[in-house]
Specification:
The chain is 6% helix and 39% strand. The protein is built from two helices and 13 strands.
Amino acid sequence: MIFIKQKLEGVYVIEAQSHSDERGLFRRHFCENEFKSHGIDFSVKQGNISENIMKYTLRGFHYQKVPSKESKVISCISGSIFNVLIDLRPESSTFMQWQEFNFTADGRESLYIPVGCANAFLTMEDNTRIHYYMNDFFTSDSLGFRYNDPAFGIHWPVIPKYMSDKDRDYPDLILGSL
């Protein structure tokens, strides 16, 4: 596994090191020891799969507040996504900055998202599946804000066609809510 630091503090793209033979490919998807060797304390509490039938489906922006300490590792296991992270940690050197990522199943990359970052993704193909490892258990009190909040000026590749009512109705981010 190759950990590549990103511009947002504590965020890593994780490239797989694949081994192939006549049977196909093998790659390590998660290793607690390798995470620890990069200063990341991450223990898997839950694994989830997001199945998105239609391209241009949007999920997010979602985030958790204390006492939740939810960080996650996401991987595109079929299809492709345009993913955006926003750093909502007031103590971070990259507070309120954002970064975009393009992930495909063929790329075999994962993204480590630390506690305190909001995440959203837009599917770019039909039948896109995203796998999540979570270091905390899901709580229903997750928060969110509008995907096109003008405070960030994110340039989405297309206007989303499908999203939940909850995601559609989120307000813009209110800094006092962090």
